[in-house]
Amino acid sequence: MAREFQRGHKAKISDLTAGTDLYVGVQISGPGLTFDISCFGLDANEQLSDDRYFVFFNQPKTPEDAMQLLGAQAGDTESFRVTLDRIPAHIHKLSFTATIDGAGQMSQIAPGCIRIVAGGEEVARYAFSGAEFSTERAVMLGDFYLKDVWRFAAVGQGFDGGLDALLKNFGGEVAEEESAAQQPQEAGAPGFAPPAQTAPAPSFGVPATPQTPQAPPLAPAFGAPNVPPQAPAPAPASAPGNPQMYTAPTVAGPMTPPAPAPAPAPAPFATQPPGPPAGPPGAPGQPFGGVQAPGPVPAEAGLRVVLTKYAEVAVGDRWTEQNPQQVRATLTKGQPILAKQGSMVAYQGDIDFAYKGSGLLGKLTGQLTGQGMSLMRCSGDGEVFLADEASRLFVIRLEGDQLYTSAHGVLAFDESLDTEIRRIEGAGLPGGGFFSMLFSGTGSVVVKTRGIPVVLPVGPATYVDGNAVIAWSAGAQAVTTTALRLRRSGYASSQSEAINLQFRGAPGNFVVVQPFEV
């Protein structure tokens, strides 16, 4: 029985089937609409750096036949063959898309789906309909993406613009119409078609269509149909100011707008706030990176373009940085998260919110430690959007690692993480900041800061205001001290700031400091 996916759901391909020779079928239709259904082979930066891996009506396969366009069959508007073990190493994502050729919008489409068939059996299906879209003319239906192993994600992300605009946003180039018109039309079968002979049904062939009582149709050969498909009329030129979308720095985000020149390398936190800050020394992936601020809106941009600039980022990982002040958690049953009460700003799907007292975290009580938290447990199937007074948010992924934080610096975390309260040695801190939280295990922590933080390497004499520290590496030892060489007036606030934290540790440790006092 096929596994039913909802928008935002993800799964390992190996959990769906042991096979690597897969059939991908797309069913999409609408009154008076014509569709171009394509597959983009993207690199690690989610760009179409090699246009030989753009599979569409005019280029039906890749050089090594890892991806092939098969045509309409078995009730599918378009279909593909994907052989995962043939995909070259520089391809990290396959994005299956549908665009409207000509006038129309995605809100007009009838119920459709994208499905995966392996060994003649349907193993996965993501159903969608026009009710999920509005004025979009293109939609990213689903992705195969490489994260240690190949995985499938049901995307369902709409996008204003046709095939040309979608191609440009993936970093591809659109051929001139004159060049396309000069290409000769072949009367016979195209060169990529197999010889004219009876071929056995492929092992990955699609099952019989359940709606018709007639005998199931035979699966076609791997090549394209004998009659060459007619190329649809060229898509109208894109309007000025192609819509842009945010990309999350920690996950494989969907589309980044083309830029006339490469962006300069980001400067450190203190010198270039809009760019992503440098990560802690020695830490992979720079977890405290930010999202680049959107560019100015062109004067000729209409309402639709303006709103699309801030559209929801396509599904990537379980945690996605929607923008610098908002994160999205994609939930599945059995994998809840804990978040600060009142931090939910929106959600989609079947989500349950339940109050969780600080007793869940053992000694984490306001009376004992001053680090009390009021948490809610979010569970179910869907997406939850979190924010907290426009604070900057950073998703830190732990894979067997440990991280210390202050409670006021935590917005949300996976319930699967182990949490513990650790006492900081030395004199007590103002406001009861005498304890810290230790996260360990596998999962993610969402850290929030007021303003753009700075990540300091821990040296032999690193002192931080106890009310401004947000997080630090587990290898750094924190002690409180009153042996200051600075006067109280040297602190950000002038009220009883005589105690701070001293950090010690081997090279490679770090401490995160926000430009704000709690």
UniProtKB/TrEMBL annotation:
Where is the sequence biased in composition, kind Pro residues? Answer: 226-237, 255-284
Q: Which SUPFAM superfamilies match?
A: TRAP-like
Q: Where is the TerD domain?
A: 1-170
Against InterPro entries, the record matches this protein to: AIM24 (IPR002838), AIM24_sf (IPR036983), Stress/Tellurium_Resist (IPR051324), TerD (IPR003325), Trp_RNA-bd_attenuator-like_dom (IPR016031)
Alphabetized Gene3D superfamilies for the sequence: Mitochondrial biogenesis AIM24, sav2460 like domains
Give the compositionally biased regions (Low complexity): 180-212, 238-254
Region described as Disordered: 175-287
The record's annotation in CDD domains points to: TerD_like
What superkingdom heads the lineage? Bacteria
Q: Where is the signal peptide?
A: none
Designated name of the protein: TerD family protein
